Amino acid sequence: MFQFNAMGFMGFVAVAMCWALALVLHRVSATGSVARKLALLLFVEGLTLVSSGCIVLMMTPATLASSWYPSYFRAEFIVHTIGDCAMLALYPAFLAAALHTELTRPFGRKRMRIGLAVVAVMFFLAVQISPLEVSATLLYLMLTLLFGYALVASIHAWLVAAPGIARNRAGIFALAFGFRDVCWGFIYALGIWMIAGGTYFDESTPPGYLTIVYYSGTFFAVPLIAYGILRTQLFDIDLRIRWTIKQSTLATIVVTFIFLLSEGADRFLSAELGNVAGLLAAGLVVFFLAPLQRVAERVASVAMPNTQNTPEYAVFRKLQVYEAAFAEALQEGGISDKERSLLVRLRDSLGISVSDAESIEGDLQQA
Fold it and tell me: Do 210 and 325 fall within a single domain?
């Protein structure tokens, strides 16, 4: 029924990255934060990718010729359309929350967000009930323009960002989202061209090699997006990601060790000895748990250097959060009374002294 395909496997890995990061970021972020919006966007991105043909690429020719495949193809297209329309509704609002530039500010308004959601629903219904040559072309054109707009907005945010943390974050944002936007924008533009040629909706034709561009956009961008955006949103996000890396590494080592020992004994000796070997492996894991934890800690240290759960590091990250918030407020042309009130509230909630806050503000104003 299924067979290995390199492109299909890459698609599955990209989907796994999206959903794994979405889960982690959802757990470590606050309700209504940019991180939580990113988690939702990553879930939608994974939904769009998993219904873009990576499953079809893993199917055998006999499966593609099955009587139920046309129904599956139509169901996959419906799911993919849901992902496309959700992206159309969610991406501009996320850009408005993450970038804070003149180009994205209108999409942060509640009326605009509601309007985008209504447009997305209308596009979905149009694709289902009207000729695809018209409705799908318009939807893909909107998505192509969206990704082009996002690319310009992220580069603009980087150019106008204040030096320091804000500039570094904007640079990572522009690099990660820019790469994804170029890849996805190209694929949706290609989809318009294929619809015009009459080959896009041919269910007997598996996805082409250019699909790898679609998967690459997420495969290489998601880690940069997750780290670059969230690192300046929560003062302890690095510690939580570090803990996740450590625990995931430990679990991987344990599961791999038990699997290899038990399956090896089962394959080369007998099923009974395989079960015994599995129990023996579990016992050895318990015995060597402390060394394994040290190995996982080293892996986490390599992945997240200079990140330690100490009072000094927590204070440092709090100061970084305040610095980023003040730098963003300066971009608006000055600190208004409302912004000053929000900064004071943020300073008090982080436990930053008045003198430290004034020192940070003085350095940024002189830069």
Answer: no
Residue 270's pLDDT is 45
**Residue 142 and residue 39 in one domain:** yes
| Residue-wise burial string across 162-174, b where 16 or more C-beta atoms lie within 10 A, e elsewhere | bebbbbbbbbbbb
Domain hosting residue 293, numbered range: 240-303
DSSP characters for 33-52? SHHHHHHHHHHHHHHHHHTT
CATH at 220:
1.20.1070
Domain contains 1: no
Q: Report helix angle 6-28 to 211-230, nearest 10.
A: 20
pTM summary value: 0.66
Nearest residue to 112 via CA among 126, 127, 98, 91: 91
Give the separation between CA 295 and CA 301, rounded to whole angstroms.
10
Those residues whose C-beta lies under 8 Å from the C-beta of residue 85, and which sit 6 or more positions away, are 120, 121, 123, 124, 139
pLDDT at 184: 95
- Report the SS3 class of residue 59: strand
Higher-pLDDT residue of 248, 161 = 161
Q: Which of 255, 133, 141 is nearest to 189 (CA)?
A: 141
pLDDT tens-digit map of 24-72: 777 766 666 677 888 899 999 999 999 988 888 888 888 888 888 888 8
Give me the helix-helix angle, 311-330 and 165-197, nearest 10°.
Answer: 70
